Amino acid sequence: MGGAAMTTTVITGIGELVTNDPARAEQGGLLGLLTDAAVVVEGSHVAWVGPAADAPAADVQVDAGGRAVIPGFVDSHSHLVFAGDRSAEFEARMTGQPYTAGGIRRTVARTRAATDEQLTSHVARLVAEMRAQGTTSVEIKSGYGLSVHDEARSLAVARQFTDETTFLGAHVVPADTTSEDYVALVTGPMLAAAAPHARWIDVFCEDGAFDVDQARAILQAGTDSGLRGRLHANQLTYGGGVRLACELGLVAVDHCTYLSDADVAALASSGTIATLLPGVEFSTRHPYPDARGLLDAGVRVALASDCNPGSCFTSSMALCIALAVREMRMSPAEALHAATATGAAALDRDDVGVLAPGKAADLVLLDAPSYVHLAYRPGVPLVAGVWQAGRPVVHSSR
Ligand SMILES: [Zn+2]
Questions:
Q1: Could you list which residues have their CB under 5 Å from ion ligand 1?
Q2: Whole-prediction pTM
Q3: Domains along the chain?
Q4: Distance from the CA of 123 to the center of ligand 1, in angstroms?
Q5: What is the pLDDT of residues 219-264, one digit of tens each?
Q6: Is 310 annotated as a binding residue?
Q7: Ligand 1 centroid – CA 232 distance (Å)
Q8: 235 labeled part of a ligand binding site
Q9: β-strand pairing of 165-170 with 140-141
Protein backbone atom coordinates (compact mmCIF):
# COMPACT_ATOMS: atom_id res chain seq x y z
CA MET A 1 0.00 0.00 0.00
CA GLY A 2 1.75 3.21 1.11
CA GLY A 3 1.36 6.44 -0.86
CA ALA A 4 -1.73 8.62 -0.48
CA ALA A 5 -3.78 8.23 2.69
CA MET A 6 -7.15 6.56 2.24
CA THR A 7 -10.33 8.44 3.04
CA THR A 8 -11.63 7.75 6.52
CA THR A 9 -15.28 7.88 7.57
CA VAL A 10 -16.59 7.78 11.13
CA ILE A 11 -20.13 6.56 11.67
CA THR A 12 -21.07 7.86 15.08
CA GLY A 13 -24.27 8.02 17.12
CA ILE A 14 -24.86 4.26 16.71
CA GLY A 15 -27.45 3.39 19.36
CA GLU A 16 -26.78 -0.33 19.06
CA LEU A 17 -23.87 -1.84 17.16
CA VAL A 18 -23.77 -5.55 16.28
CA THR A 19 -20.10 -6.49 15.88
CA ASN A 20 -20.24 -10.34 16.00
CA ASP A 21 -16.76 -9.94 17.47
CA PRO A 22 -16.01 -12.91 19.75
CA ALA A 23 -13.62 -10.67 21.71
CA ARG A 24 -16.68 -8.68 22.82
CA ALA A 25 -18.80 -11.70 23.81
CA GLU A 26 -18.28 -11.37 27.54
CA GLN A 27 -19.99 -7.96 27.66
CA GLY A 28 -21.91 -8.06 24.40
CA GLY A 29 -23.08 -11.66 24.12
CA LEU A 30 -23.28 -13.68 20.91
CA LEU A 31 -23.59 -10.53 18.81
CA GLY A 32 -20.80 -8.63 20.57
CA LEU A 33 -23.19 -5.72 21.12
CA LEU A 34 -22.00 -2.20 21.86
CA THR A 35 -24.27 0.72 22.69
CA ASP A 36 -23.55 4.41 21.94
CA ALA A 37 -20.89 3.21 19.53
CA ALA A 38 -18.92 4.43 16.55
CA VAL A 39 -17.15 2.71 13.65
CA VAL A 40 -14.29 4.17 11.65
CA VAL A 41 -13.93 2.98 8.06
CA GLU A 42 -10.63 3.43 6.20
CA GLY A 43 -10.74 2.55 2.54
CA SER A 44 -12.50 -0.78 2.21
CA HIS A 45 -11.95 -1.95 5.78
CA VAL A 46 -12.99 -1.27 9.36
CA ALA A 47 -10.23 0.62 11.14
CA TRP A 48 -11.72 1.16 14.59
CA VAL A 49 -14.77 0.12 16.67
CA GLY A 50 -15.62 1.45 20.10
CA PRO A 51 -17.59 3.89 22.26
CA ALA A 52 -18.69 6.98 20.30
CA ALA A 53 -17.13 9.22 22.96
CA ASP A 54 -13.69 7.79 22.15
CA ALA A 55 -13.98 7.83 18.37
CA PRO A 56 -11.00 9.32 16.52
CA ALA A 57 -11.51 12.08 13.98
CA ALA A 58 -12.11 11.17 10.34
CA ASP A 59 -12.43 12.89 6.96
CA VAL A 60 -16.16 12.23 6.75
CA GLN A 61 -18.63 12.02 9.63
CA VAL A 62 -21.98 10.25 9.44
CA ASP A 63 -24.46 10.45 12.32
CA ALA A 64 -26.54 7.30 12.79
CA GLY A 65 -28.93 9.26 14.99
CA GLY A 66 -29.23 6.56 17.63
CA ARG A 67 -30.16 3.85 15.14
CA ALA A 68 -28.71 0.33 14.95
CA VAL A 69 -25.85 -0.80 12.71
CA ILE A 70 -25.24 -4.46 11.83
CA PRO A 71 -22.76 -6.29 9.59
CA GLY A 72 -24.04 -6.75 6.05
CA PHE A 73 -25.88 -10.03 5.53
CA VAL A 74 -23.89 -12.93 4.07
CA ASP A 75 -26.28 -14.93 1.88
CA SER A 76 -24.40 -18.20 1.37
CA HIS A 77 -26.93 -19.93 -0.92
CA SER A 78 -28.61 -18.52 -4.02
CA HIS A 79 -29.43 -19.48 -7.60
CA LEU A 80 -29.54 -16.13 -9.38
CA VAL A 81 -28.49 -17.15 -12.90
CA PHE A 82 -31.74 -18.01 -14.65
CA ALA A 83 -34.37 -16.73 -17.03
CA GLY A 84 -38.13 -16.99 -17.00
CA ASP A 85 -40.88 -16.78 -14.44
CA ARG A 86 -42.53 -19.55 -12.44
CA SER A 87 -45.20 -17.62 -10.59
CA ALA A 88 -47.88 -19.82 -12.14
CA GLU A 89 -46.20 -22.86 -10.58
CA PHE A 90 -46.22 -21.09 -7.20
CA GLU A 91 -49.88 -20.27 -7.58
CA ALA A 92 -50.67 -23.89 -8.45
CA ARG A 93 -48.70 -25.10 -5.44
CA MET A 94 -50.48 -22.71 -3.12
CA THR A 95 -53.79 -24.04 -4.40
CA GLY A 96 -53.06 -27.66 -3.64
CA GLN A 97 -50.35 -29.20 -5.82
CA PRO A 98 -47.21 -30.51 -4.03
CA TYR A 99 -43.76 -29.21 -5.01
CA THR A 100 -41.53 -31.53 -7.03
CA ALA A 101 -38.14 -30.76 -8.46
CA GLY A 102 -39.44 -31.13 -12.05
CA GLY A 103 -40.02 -27.41 -12.44
CA ILE A 104 -36.26 -26.92 -12.62
CA ARG A 105 -36.39 -28.24 -16.20
CA ARG A 106 -38.71 -25.41 -17.23
CA THR A 107 -36.18 -22.86 -16.00
CA VAL A 108 -33.41 -24.74 -17.82
CA ALA A 109 -35.19 -24.32 -21.15
CA ARG A 110 -35.62 -20.57 -20.61
CA THR A 111 -32.04 -20.12 -19.35
CA ARG A 112 -30.52 -21.88 -22.35
CA ALA A 113 -32.55 -19.63 -24.65
CA ALA A 114 -31.37 -16.41 -22.96
CA THR A 115 -28.37 -14.43 -24.19
CA ASP A 116 -25.37 -13.77 -21.96
CA GLU A 117 -26.46 -10.12 -21.79
CA GLN A 118 -29.95 -11.06 -20.65
CA LEU A 119 -28.60 -13.37 -17.95
CA THR A 120 -26.09 -10.75 -16.78
CA SER A 121 -28.65 -7.95 -16.53
CA HIS A 122 -31.04 -10.25 -14.67
CA VAL A 123 -28.37 -11.20 -12.11
CA ALA A 124 -27.40 -7.52 -11.75
CA ARG A 125 -31.00 -6.64 -10.94
CA LEU A 126 -31.27 -9.37 -8.30
CA VAL A 127 -27.92 -8.51 -6.70
CA ALA A 128 -29.01 -4.86 -6.49
CA GLU A 129 -32.31 -5.98 -4.95
CA MET A 130 -30.35 -7.96 -2.34
CA ARG A 131 -27.98 -5.08 -1.63
CA ALA A 132 -30.87 -2.69 -1.07
CA GLN A 133 -32.07 -5.11 1.62
CA GLY A 134 -28.70 -5.29 3.35
CA THR A 135 -26.95 -8.26 1.71
CA THR A 136 -23.31 -7.40 1.01
CA SER A 137 -21.94 -10.90 0.27
CA VAL A 138 -23.71 -13.49 -1.87
CA GLU A 139 -22.91 -16.95 -3.14
CA ILE A 140 -24.32 -17.69 -6.60
CA LYS A 141 -24.78 -21.16 -8.11
CA SER A 142 -25.12 -22.37 -11.66
CA GLY A 143 -27.52 -25.23 -12.25
CA TYR A 144 -30.01 -24.04 -14.87
CA GLY A 145 -27.73 -24.66 -17.83
CA LEU A 146 -27.08 -28.41 -17.48
CA SER A 147 -24.94 -28.46 -20.63
CA VAL A 148 -21.20 -27.89 -20.84
CA HIS A 149 -21.69 -24.54 -22.58
CA ASP A 150 -24.58 -23.30 -20.45
CA GLU A 151 -23.08 -24.26 -17.08
CA ALA A 152 -19.78 -22.59 -17.94
CA ARG A 153 -21.42 -19.38 -19.13
CA SER A 154 -23.76 -19.31 -16.12
CA LEU A 155 -20.70 -19.35 -13.85
CA ALA A 156 -18.90 -16.74 -15.96
CA VAL A 157 -21.96 -14.49 -15.53
CA ALA A 158 -22.06 -15.13 -11.77
CA ARG A 159 -18.32 -14.42 -11.44
CA GLN A 160 -18.92 -10.84 -12.50
CA PHE A 161 -20.79 -10.33 -9.22
CA THR A 162 -19.07 -12.51 -6.60
CA ASP A 163 -16.02 -14.65 -5.91
CA GLU A 164 -18.31 -17.19 -4.24
CA THR A 165 -19.49 -19.07 -7.32
CA THR A 166 -20.67 -22.67 -7.16
CA PHE A 167 -20.86 -25.24 -9.96
CA LEU A 168 -24.19 -27.04 -9.60
CA GLY A 169 -24.31 -29.00 -12.84
CA ALA A 170 -25.69 -31.81 -10.65
CA HIS A 171 -28.95 -29.95 -10.01
CA VAL A 172 -31.24 -32.36 -11.85
CA VAL A 173 -30.77 -34.89 -14.66
CA PRO A 174 -31.91 -33.18 -17.87
CA ALA A 175 -34.59 -34.80 -20.00
CA ASP A 176 -33.30 -37.02 -22.82
CA THR A 177 -30.27 -38.43 -20.93
CA THR A 178 -29.71 -41.14 -18.34
CA SER A 179 -28.40 -40.35 -14.89
CA GLU A 180 -25.29 -42.50 -15.53
CA ASP A 181 -24.45 -40.61 -18.71
CA TYR A 182 -25.17 -37.29 -17.05
CA VAL A 183 -22.93 -37.96 -14.02
CA ALA A 184 -20.15 -38.83 -16.48
CA LEU A 185 -20.70 -35.50 -18.24
CA VAL A 186 -20.82 -33.52 -14.97
CA THR A 187 -17.62 -35.09 -13.66
CA GLY A 188 -15.87 -34.87 -17.04
CA PRO A 189 -16.20 -32.17 -19.73
CA MET A 190 -18.70 -30.04 -17.80
CA LEU A 191 -16.50 -29.88 -14.71
CA ALA A 192 -13.49 -29.00 -16.85
CA ALA A 193 -15.39 -26.11 -18.45
CA ALA A 194 -16.92 -24.92 -15.18
CA ALA A 195 -13.97 -25.17 -12.80
CA PRO A 196 -12.12 -22.05 -14.00
CA HIS A 197 -15.17 -19.93 -13.06
CA ALA A 198 -16.08 -21.61 -9.75
CA ARG A 199 -14.81 -21.86 -6.17
CA TRP A 200 -17.29 -24.52 -5.04
CA ILE A 201 -19.05 -27.64 -6.33
CA ASP A 202 -22.51 -28.64 -5.15
CA VAL A 203 -24.95 -31.52 -5.72
CA PHE A 204 -28.72 -31.70 -5.20
CA CYS A 205 -28.71 -34.97 -3.24
CA GLU A 206 -32.37 -35.98 -3.13
CA ASP A 207 -34.90 -38.50 -4.42
CA GLY A 208 -35.52 -37.49 -8.03
CA ALA A 209 -32.12 -35.80 -8.35
CA PHE A 210 -28.81 -37.49 -7.34
CA ASP A 211 -28.28 -40.28 -4.81
CA VAL A 212 -25.55 -40.47 -2.18
CA ASP A 213 -23.14 -42.53 -4.30
CA GLN A 214 -23.52 -40.15 -7.24
CA ALA A 215 -23.08 -37.14 -4.95
CA ARG A 216 -19.92 -38.65 -3.50
CA ALA A 217 -18.46 -39.25 -6.98
CA ILE A 218 -19.32 -35.74 -8.17
CA LEU A 219 -17.90 -34.06 -5.05
CA GLN A 220 -14.72 -36.15 -5.35
CA ALA A 221 -14.28 -35.14 -8.99
CA GLY A 222 -14.76 -31.50 -8.02
CA THR A 223 -12.22 -31.76 -5.23
CA ASP A 224 -9.75 -33.32 -7.66
CA SER A 225 -10.25 -30.25 -9.88
CA GLY A 226 -9.52 -27.84 -7.04
CA LEU A 227 -13.09 -26.99 -6.08
CA ARG A 228 -14.50 -27.26 -2.57
CA GLY A 229 -17.65 -29.23 -1.83
CA ARG A 230 -21.02 -28.20 -0.47
CA LEU A 231 -24.31 -30.08 -0.68
CA HIS A 232 -28.08 -29.68 -0.97
CA ALA A 233 -29.38 -32.47 1.26
CA ASN A 234 -32.41 -33.72 3.18
CA GLN A 235 -34.72 -31.06 1.77
CA LEU A 236 -37.67 -33.23 0.82
CA THR A 237 -36.97 -36.59 2.47
CA TYR A 238 -34.76 -38.35 5.00
CA GLY A 239 -31.61 -39.76 3.44
CA GLY A 240 -27.85 -40.03 3.61
CA GLY A 241 -26.88 -36.64 2.19
CA VAL A 242 -26.23 -34.86 5.48
CA ARG A 243 -24.12 -37.73 6.79
CA LEU A 244 -22.13 -37.74 3.54
CA ALA A 245 -21.40 -34.02 3.98
CA CYS A 246 -20.22 -34.63 7.54
CA GLU A 247 -18.13 -37.64 6.56
CA LEU A 248 -16.41 -35.61 3.84
CA GLY A 249 -15.86 -32.70 6.24
CA LEU A 250 -17.70 -30.22 4.00
CA VAL A 251 -17.88 -26.70 5.39
CA ALA A 252 -21.67 -26.58 4.99
CA VAL A 253 -24.67 -28.72 4.07
CA ASP A 254 -27.80 -26.90 3.05
CA HIS A 255 -31.56 -27.39 3.69
CA CYS A 256 -31.42 -30.03 6.52
CA THR A 257 -35.21 -30.13 6.74
CA TYR A 258 -35.62 -33.87 7.36
CA LEU A 259 -32.97 -34.97 9.89
CA SER A 260 -32.64 -38.16 11.92
CA ASP A 261 -30.97 -38.21 15.32
CA ALA A 262 -27.92 -39.73 13.60
CA ASP A 263 -27.82 -36.77 11.17
CA VAL A 264 -27.90 -34.26 14.05
CA ALA A 265 -25.17 -36.17 15.90
CA ALA A 266 -23.03 -36.23 12.74
CA LEU A 267 -23.44 -32.48 12.28
CA ALA A 268 -22.56 -31.78 15.91
CA SER A 269 -19.41 -33.91 15.86
CA SER A 270 -18.16 -32.92 12.38
CA GLY A 271 -18.52 -29.17 12.71
CA THR A 272 -20.18 -29.02 9.28
CA ILE A 273 -22.50 -26.00 9.29
CA ALA A 274 -26.21 -26.67 8.75
CA THR A 275 -27.45 -23.91 6.45
CA LEU A 276 -31.21 -23.56 6.85
CA LEU A 277 -33.30 -21.99 4.10
CA PRO A 278 -36.67 -21.23 5.69
CA GLY A 279 -37.90 -19.24 2.72
CA VAL A 280 -38.17 -22.58 0.93
CA GLU A 281 -40.45 -24.09 3.55
CA PHE A 282 -42.49 -20.87 3.56
CA SER A 283 -42.82 -20.95 -0.23
CA THR A 284 -43.51 -24.68 -0.54
CA ARG A 285 -45.66 -25.03 2.60
CA HIS A 286 -43.35 -27.71 3.98
CA PRO A 287 -42.50 -28.14 7.67
CA TYR A 288 -39.60 -26.01 8.85
CA PRO A 289 -36.27 -27.55 9.89
CA ASP A 290 -35.67 -27.98 13.61
CA ALA A 291 -33.28 -25.10 14.17
CA ARG A 292 -33.82 -25.17 17.93
CA GLY A 293 -32.92 -28.85 18.14
CA LEU A 294 -29.81 -28.31 16.02
CA LEU A 295 -28.59 -25.39 18.13
CA ASP A 296 -29.32 -27.22 21.37
CA ALA A 297 -27.29 -30.18 20.05
CA GLY A 298 -24.33 -27.88 19.43
CA VAL A 299 -24.65 -27.64 15.64
CA ARG A 300 -23.57 -24.41 13.95
CA VAL A 301 -26.53 -22.99 12.02
CA ALA A 302 -26.47 -20.51 9.14
CA LEU A 303 -29.43 -18.89 7.40
CA ALA A 304 -29.58 -18.15 3.67
CA SER A 305 -32.23 -17.17 1.14
CA ASP A 306 -31.93 -19.94 -1.51
CA CYS A 307 -33.22 -17.24 -3.85
CA ASN A 308 -34.36 -19.16 -6.95
CA PRO A 309 -37.29 -19.05 -9.37
CA GLY A 310 -38.92 -22.31 -8.24
CA SER A 311 -38.99 -23.21 -4.56
CA CYS A 312 -38.28 -19.77 -3.05
CA PHE A 313 -38.12 -16.48 -4.89
CA THR A 314 -37.24 -14.19 -2.00
CA SER A 315 -34.00 -12.21 -1.79
CA SER A 316 -34.79 -10.97 1.73
CA MET A 317 -32.49 -12.10 4.53
CA ALA A 318 -34.71 -10.14 6.93
CA LEU A 319 -37.61 -12.42 5.98
CA CYS A 320 -35.41 -15.46 6.65
CA ILE A 321 -34.56 -14.04 10.08
CA ALA A 322 -38.21 -13.38 10.88
CA LEU A 323 -39.17 -16.93 9.84
CA ALA A 324 -36.28 -18.41 11.85
CA VAL A 325 -37.44 -16.57 14.95
CA ARG A 326 -41.18 -17.08 14.57
CA GLU A 327 -41.29 -20.56 13.05
CA MET A 328 -37.99 -22.19 14.05
CA ARG A 329 -37.51 -20.89 17.59
CA MET A 330 -34.19 -19.22 17.05
CA SER A 331 -33.66 -16.15 19.22
CA PRO A 332 -33.41 -12.85 17.30
CA ALA A 333 -29.69 -12.77 18.18
CA GLU A 334 -29.12 -16.36 16.99
CA ALA A 335 -30.95 -15.64 13.74
CA LEU A 336 -28.97 -12.48 12.97
CA HIS A 337 -25.69 -14.20 13.83
CA ALA A 338 -26.67 -17.09 11.52
CA ALA A 339 -27.41 -14.62 8.69
CA THR A 340 -24.07 -12.82 9.05
CA ALA A 341 -21.11 -14.42 10.87
CA THR A 342 -22.15 -18.05 10.42
CA GLY A 343 -23.16 -17.37 6.81
CA ALA A 344 -19.61 -16.16 6.28
CA ALA A 345 -18.24 -19.29 8.00
CA ALA A 346 -20.39 -21.39 5.66
CA LEU A 347 -18.35 -19.86 2.82
CA ASP A 348 -15.15 -20.34 4.83
CA ARG A 349 -14.75 -16.58 5.08
CA ASP A 350 -13.66 -14.69 8.18
CA ASP A 351 -13.25 -11.25 6.59
CA VAL A 352 -16.99 -10.54 6.34
CA GLY A 353 -19.94 -10.94 8.72
CA VAL A 354 -17.95 -9.34 11.57
CA LEU A 355 -17.29 -5.68 12.35
CA ALA A 356 -13.84 -5.40 13.87
CA PRO A 357 -10.57 -3.73 12.86
CA GLY A 358 -9.21 -5.28 9.66
CA LYS A 359 -12.53 -6.77 8.55
CA ALA A 360 -14.43 -5.68 5.44
CA ALA A 361 -16.39 -2.46 5.92
CA ASP A 362 -19.72 -4.06 4.99
CA LEU A 363 -22.27 -2.32 7.22
CA VAL A 364 -26.01 -1.83 7.28
CA LEU A 365 -27.70 1.09 9.02
CA LEU A 366 -31.18 0.07 10.16
CA ASP A 367 -34.02 2.51 10.44
CA ALA A 368 -34.64 1.07 13.91
CA PRO A 369 -33.11 1.34 17.39
CA SER A 370 -32.31 -2.38 17.61
CA TYR A 371 -31.50 -5.38 15.42
CA VAL A 372 -34.51 -7.09 17.06
CA HIS A 373 -36.72 -5.06 14.71
CA LEU A 374 -35.59 -7.35 11.85
CA ALA A 375 -37.89 -10.03 13.32
CA TYR A 376 -40.22 -7.74 15.28
CA ARG A 377 -41.28 -5.79 12.16
CA PRO A 378 -41.57 -8.50 9.49
CA GLY A 379 -42.04 -7.30 5.94
CA VAL A 380 -41.07 -3.71 6.74
CA PRO A 381 -38.14 -2.22 4.79
CA LEU A 382 -35.73 -1.24 7.57
CA VAL A 383 -32.50 -0.67 5.65
CA ALA A 384 -31.57 3.03 5.78
CA GLY A 385 -28.03 2.71 4.44
CA VAL A 386 -25.52 0.15 3.19
CA TRP A 387 -21.73 0.41 2.94
CA GLN A 388 -20.02 -2.28 0.89
CA ALA A 389 -16.22 -2.49 1.13
CA GLY A 390 -16.37 1.00 2.65
CA ARG A 391 -18.41 2.57 -0.15
CA PRO A 392 -21.92 3.87 0.49
CA VAL A 393 -24.03 1.87 -1.98
CA VAL A 394 -27.52 2.37 -0.60
CA HIS A 395 -28.85 5.50 1.03
CA SER A 396 -32.42 6.05 2.11
CA SER A 397 -33.59 9.59 2.76
CA ARG A 398 -35.79 8.54 5.65
ZN1 LIG B 1 -30.57 -24.30 -3.46
A1: 306
A2: 0.97
A3: 8-71+354-395 (2.30.40.10), 74-347 (3.20.20.140)
A4: 16
A5: 999 999 999 999 999 999 999 999 999 999 999 999 999 999 999 9
A6: yes
A7: 6
A8: yes
A9: parallel
